[in-house]
Amino acid sequence: MIDFNNKPLFLAPMAGFSDLPFRNVVKKFGADVTISEMISSNALVYENKKTLHMLKKAELEKPYIVQIAGSDAEIIKKAVLILNEIDFIDGIDFNCGCPVNKVVKQCAGSALLKDLDLFKKLVATIKEHNKKSLTSVKFRLGFDDKYPEKMAKICEELEINFISIHGRTRKALYSGDADYKSIAYAKSQVKIPVIANGDINASNANEVFNITKCDGLMIGRASVGNPWIFYEIKEGKKIDKALKKEIILFHFDEIIKHYGNLGVNIFKKHLHEYSKTHKNACAFRSEINHYTKALEMRNSIENFF
């Protein structure tokens, strides 16, 4: 389902950004694999309406992977069984990398890197019960120290299809530079596909491939306000102004289609990013912050870009 010989590009799961409309945009413009926003296994099992809405698949997504998080094996098993019943999901990814306090305090996300026995138990639970084509795990280099090869070897032993490694520890959060050499070391210790993640952009993508020898790249923050990054990496050239405008309008239309008029407010954070390098961006942001209707916002986008 994923051709690792072609060095695929993944969109990283990002809370508040990698929703269905954004995933559809990046799929149209170069991303090979998309992953949902992180889904709480507890929220999924207890049928939180917002969570069920987050599971929806964008039109262009294939393969489509749903990422879950949690720390209770029984709840995670129930979450996997629920996902098994949803036909359009192609794989399940397990989050062992989220560094935010509210997730870590629940012994989930990167907190699992402090307890590799629990890490192994939970990954094994997902692998055992997942009936989808793909099972994957995303993790950081470690909690305080770096030992990515330990998690990588556990995943290989459990026959996980691929792993994604963010080049920082939990302690580092998002500060400092991603450590690609540590990812490279983990990659050298296993035979399963490894995806490199952290600080990857159009300028350094080839360098990251060369350093890590990874089987693919996962791009997160660099795609916000810049979803054409996947196209630019693949084609080795910048896109023109006209195509940027087309992408921004397509993204806006997808937002409105998915959220209705609520999408007007949701899209403001994206427009703040899209407008960053443009002349008169401050005035534009001030203007759109007052909009409540889709048509007036779309007209403003047409005129500004």
TrEMBL record:
Q: Which residues form the signal peptide?
A: none
Provide the transmembrane region boundaries.
none
Domain of life from the UniProt record? Bacteria
Pfam families with a match to the protein in the record: Dus (PF01207)
Which reactions does this protein catalyse?
a 5,6-dihydrouridine in tRNA + NAD(+) = a uridine in tRNA + NADH + H(+); a 5,6-dihydrouridine in tRNA + NADP(+) = a uridine in tRNA + NADPH + H(+)
Q: Where is the active site?
A: 98 (proton donor)
Q: Where does FMN bind?
A: 13-15, 67, 138, 166, 220-221
Q: Which cofactor does it need?
A: FMN
> Which is one GO molecular function term here?
flavin adenine dinucleotide binding
Report the EC code(s) recorded for this entry.
1.3.1.-
Q: Per its UniProt record, what InterPro entries does this chain match?
A: Aldolase_TIM, DUS-like_FMN-bd, DUS_fam, tRNA-dHydroUridine_Synthase_C, tRNA_hU_synthase_CS
The DUS-like FMN-binding domain sits at 11-300
**Keywords from the UniProt entry:** Flavoprotein, FMN, NADP, Nucleotide-binding, Oxidoreductase, RNA-binding, tRNA processing, tRNA-binding
Family, similarity comment: Belongs to the dus family.
Q: Which PANTHER family match?
A: TRNA-DIHYDROURIDINE(47) SYNTHASE [NAD(P)(+)]-LIKE (PTHR45846:SF1)
- Free-text function comment from the UniProt entry: Catalyzes the synthesis of 5,6-dihydrouridine (D), a modified base found in the D-loop of most tRNAs, via the reduction of the C5-C6 double bond in target uridines.
Name of this chain's protein: tRNA-dihydrouridine synthase
Q: Show the taxonomic lineage.
A: Bacteria, Pseudomonadati, Campylobacterota, Epsilonproteobacteria, Campylobacterales
